[in-house]
Specification:
Elements: E1 2-5, E2 20-25, E3 31-45, H1 46-53, H2 62-72, E4 85-96, E5 103-104, H3 124-140, H4 142-149, H5 163-173, E6 189-193, E7 208-212, H6 213-221, E8 224-226, E9 232-234, H7 237-242, H8 268-277
Antiparallel strand pairs: 1-4, 2-3, 3-4, 3-5, 6-7, 8-9
Helix pairs in contact: 1-5, 3-4
């Protein structure tokens, strides 16, 4: 899910990735209505947030989301952002409580606090809320609770990513440029799975490549691939099957751009899997 902020300049540093993120309901409820795990923040166009998360942005459709953004912005900011960029706090594995399960908000919560308040989960109000969240999760979502309840002292976890978070995370990891062509036009870029999700591939950055949409389609169909040493290859079948490919053959053998973070770079074993199981040679 995406917890968006109308201002694109906000830099969220309240908690690190993998920490529990509690959903506090405002007036008149004053309660904790669920929790998830914070993954990352990104500043992206609202249209990309909608494409990535859809109704998980908290709106039934994109026009409604746009209206909500404008309503939250100050009069000075309305209509001044042609791309309508927003701050996005991406939360994985959310659990929402029924009204009868809502947890009393922190007893030391001050009226002027809006968001970003942090608590130590080992004592006091933080421990009370976290213990209740784990108890409810055990009853509602055993699969989630299995991971949550393994904790002794609270520690950070690596949450399972959904499709929306996967897309935005891959976009950011590649600095919003196609790994092959370096194209920066964001509407033309797509997060490609190296090993498809339907075939056991995971929504993790090392199973992803940011590709221009046409190259993404060719990659999925096996007409192009990336070797384990990060070089782009084009199948001779592209010419044989379509009597074309002039835009792609000049790119053959070029080294792709990879993320600066080593943990985000394409997994070499997954690239070998694509070479063996998808590439048409």
């Amino acid at each position: 899910m995406n917890f968006w902020q109308p201002s694109p300049s906000t830099n969220f540093r309240a908690i690190p990735p993998g920490a529990p993120f509690f959903f506090k309901l405002r007036s008149p409820h004053y309660a904790i209505g669920g929790f998830g795990y914070f993954v990352k923040q990104s500043i992206i166009p609202a249209w990309l947030a909608w494409e990535a998360f859809g109704a998980a942005n908290g709106a039934p459709n994109f026009p409604t989301m746009q209206h909500q953004i404008e309503q939250c912005r100050t009069a000075a900011r309305r209509g001044r952002d042609p791309l309508c960029t927003i701050g996005c706090l991406m939360v994985a594995q959310p659990v929402f409580f029924d009204e009868s399960e809502w947890i009393e908000q922190p007893r030391d919560w001050q009226p002027n606090i809006v968001r970003g308040k942090t608590y130590d989960l080992t004592f006091g109000e933080g421990k009370r809320i976290w213990d209740e969240c784990r108890r409810i999760a055990t009853e509602k979502r055993p699969a989630v609770a299995e991971k949550v309840m393994r904790w002794g002292e609270p520690t950070l976890i690596l949450p399972r990513l959904g499709q929306g978070i996967f897309r935005v995370t891959v976009v950011d990891a590649y600095n919003r440029a196609c790994a092959v062509t370096r194209e920066h036009s964001l509407p033309a870029l797509e997060a490609a799975h190296i090993r498809p999700y339907a075939e056991g591939g995971e929504h993790r950055v090392s199973n992803g490549l940011l590709l221009r949409s046409d190259i993404h389609r060719l990659f999925d169909q096996g007409y192009v691939t990336v070797t384990p040493d990060y070089h782009f290859e084009v199948s001779k079948r592209l010419r044989d099957d379509f009597s074309n490919g002039r835009s792609y053959y000049p790119l053959r053998g070029t080294r792709i751009a990879v993320p600066e973070d080593p943990s985000a770079r394409p997994d070499r074993e997954l690239l070998a899997w694509h070479n063996l199981n998808r590439f048409l040679g």
